[in-house]
Each structure stands twice: as structure tokens, then as C-alpha cells.
Design a protein that fits this description.
The chain has 11 helices and 6 strands. With 283 residues, the protein is α/β, with parallel strands linked by helices. Helix 4 runs parallel beside helix 10. The longest helix has 38 residues.
């Protein structure tokens, strides 16, 4: 009877409805967010270097922010974007936003407007959104010569020479730092054409899966810092002293990872015992 009971248990576990699994995962992710479970977060050196690069900017300096991601990567990249913008506006740094993924730019613009409102920043004076232009390699090279040639107006169609923030901005020579938020290969082109060709200082925030591809650029000192994934976003929030979705999201991500590992173990055990029981019945 005991053997039958064990066999029945594993058979039930093997056939569990996937909707129950999704429900358990939903609870596992939601609870840490609702309870705001947190812990000590120790910033790593690449994130510290990214933070220091922005901290080195003085009031009136220009920070160019590139939105090179879309909604699929927003949970990882939006928290670090907000942190960087808060750090910049707190220092009265001028922010110029643009992007090479058109469907992601509205997300970047939303974060820009939200943070600008927090700090009382004025559009056209303290920050601007230049929008999107197709052909990112051509765009990157053109900006090294004259930004107005490729971005003659902002996303609303206002000529850039009519706005105080961009009136005297002509090329990378006027941009103290570029901070790109990446989920794909655009990072490679930034390094090849803006850094290698025009010696532009740059830092990147990437999704977790993209971070390993960016480390060689950090080791070769072609970029000054790297913020990778939600963990990197949480570390950056720690450095600026403002808890956000990165810090709150880390426990949820950790619990979800542990749950997935538990399901893998249970699934393998269920498969093993089910096959073992089937073999005994045949024998």
C-alpha cells in the first residue's frame, strides 16, 4: 500500500495542471512586490564605475541617453534609466534623449517626463527628446560631424537651434557622456562608430543576457561602466540612495528562480519514479 501511495503521488505531480503552476508562480512573484521584501545589496565594480561616470559630470554638462530597447526588456532597463535620470537632474546635468528602437522611445520619454517633473526640469532648457531616425550606423556617424544634419528637430518637430538646450550642441565634442540602454546589438555599433571613431565617453545599461557580451568592452576600457539586468538596476538604486523597482523586483526574481529550480527537481523526480513504477508493473 505504501508503494502504491508513493507511485500515485508522483503520477499526480507529473500530471499537474499547468494553470496551477502559473498560479503558484504568480503568487511567488507578487508577494515580494506587495510586501516590499528587501535585503542588503552590495554594488559591484562595473556598476560603481557607471555611477562614477555620471557623478563626474558637472552642472551644465550634457548627458546623451540612448533608448535602444523595447517593451520586452523594459522591466530590466526602465528602473536603471530612472535612476540615471534622477542622478543627472539632481546635478543639473542637461539630458538629451534619442533612440534607435522606435517602439521603445515612448517608454524612455515617459520615464524622462516623470523624472523631470520630480526635479522641476524644463523641456527645451534642461532636457530634450530628439526622437528616432532610421539607420543607426549612419545616425551615429553623422552625429560625430553635426547633430543638426541628422536631428534637425526634436520629436515634436521643433528645430533644435530654437531650443536653449541644443542651440550650441553640434557633435560628440559637446557631449560629456553617452549612456545607452541596450537589449541588442546596437551597443556594438555605438562602440565601433561613436567611441572608436570619435572617442566618445560611454556607459551602458543592458539586459542580463546581454551583459556578458558587453564585458570585453569594459575590460578594454572602451566603455567606463556597465549596469547589467535587474540586479544592476538594484545596485544603481543603492548607489543613488533611492529605492525603486529594481530593488523591489530583485526578491521577486529570486523567489521565481528558486521556484523554477524546485519545479525542475520535482519534475525530474516524478519522471524517475513514474518510470520506475511502470517498470515494476511490466515485470
Amino acid at each position: 500500500m505504501e508503494e502504491k501511495r508513493r507511485r500515485g503521488f508522483w503520477e499526480v505531480m507529473n500530471d499537474i495542471d499547468r494553470r496551477i503552476i502559473f498560479l503558484i508562480l504568480l503568487v511567488c512573484v507578487t508577494l515580494p512586490l506587495l510586501l516590499e521584501v528587501g535585503g542588503d545589496i552590495t554594488p559591484t565594480l562595473p556598476v560603481q564605475r557607471a555611477h562614477e561616470a555620471v557623478a563626474s559630470l558637472k552642472a551644465g554638462d550634457y548627458l546623451m541617453v540612448s533608448i535602444d530597447f523595447d517593451a520586452t526588456s523594459a522591466p530590466e532597463l526602465m528602473p536603471m534609466l530612472r535612476s540615471v535620470l534622477r542622478q543627472a537632474f539632481a546635478k543639473d546635468v542637461k539630458v538629451i534623449m534619442l533612440g534607435h528602437i522606435a517602439i521603445g522611445l515612448p517608454l524612455g520619454h515617459l520615464a524622462l517626463e516623470q523624472v523631470a517633473e520630480e526635479y522641476g526640469a524644463e523641456y527645451g532648457v534642461d532636457y530634450v527628446d530628439l526622437g528616432y531616425r532610421p539607420g543607426y550606423i549612419a545616425v551615429m556617424i553623422a552625429m560625430g560631424r553635426e547633430i543638426e544634419d541628422i536631428f534637425g528637430s526634436d520629436y515634436q518637430g521643433t528645430p533644435i537651434r530654437e531650443m536653449p538646450i541644443t542651440r550650441n550642441v553640434h557633435s560628440y565634442d559637446d557631449i560629456e557622456l553617452l549612456f545607452g540602454f541596450e537589449h541588442g546589438a546596437v551597443i556594438d555599433y555605438w562602440v565601433r562608430y561613436a567611441q572608436a571613431r570619435f572617442d566618445q565617453r560611454m556607459v551602458f545599461g543592458t539586459t542580463a543576457v546581454m551583459a556578458p557580451d558587453a564585458y570585453p568592452y569594459l575590460q578594454s576600457e572602451q566603455i567606463e561602466g556597465l549596469v547589467g539586468g535587474l540586479k544592476g538596476a538594484a545596485e544603481y538604486e543603492t548607489l543613488i540612495g533611492q529605492r525603486g523597482l529594481g530593488t523591489r523586483g530583485m526578491p521577486a526574481q529570486q523567489w521565481a528562480h528558486l521556484l523554477v529550480i524546485a519545479f525542475i527537481i520535482i519534475g525530474n523526480l516524478g519522471h524517475y519514479f513514474t518510470r520506475k513504477s511502470a517498470g515494476r508493473r511490466i515485470a
